Amino acid sequence: MTTTITSEKKQPKQGMLDNVMRQFNNAADIIELNKNIRKILEVTNSEFIVHFPVRMDNGEVEIFTGYRVQHNNALGPYKGGLRYHPTVDIDAARALAMWMTWKTSLAGLPYGGAKGGIQLDPTKYSQDELQRITRRFTYALGDNIGPELDIPAPDVNTNAQTMAWILDTYMSTKSPNERSKNLHVVTGKPIGAGGSEGRDRATGYGVYLTIKFWAESKNTDLKGKKFIVQGFGNVGYWAAYFLEREGAVLTAVQDAYGSIHNDQGISTENLMAYTKANKGSILGFAGASPMDNGDFFSLDCDICIPAALGNQITVKNAHTIKAGLIAEGANGPTDVQAEEILLQRGVDIIPDILCNSGGVIGSYFEWLQNRNGEIWTLEEVLDKLEKKMRESYFKVAQKAKSKKVDMRTAAFIIAIERLEETYVQRGIFP
Ligand SMILES: NC(=O)C1=CN([C@@H]2O[C@H](COP(=O)(O)OP(=O)(O)OC[C@H]3O[C@@H](n4cnc5c(N)ncnc54)[C@H](O)[C@@H]3O)[C@@H](O)[C@H]2O)C=CC1
Ligand SMILES: O=C(O)CCC(=O)C(=O)O
Question: Which domain of life, per UniProt (predicted)?
Answer without folding.
Answer: Bacteria
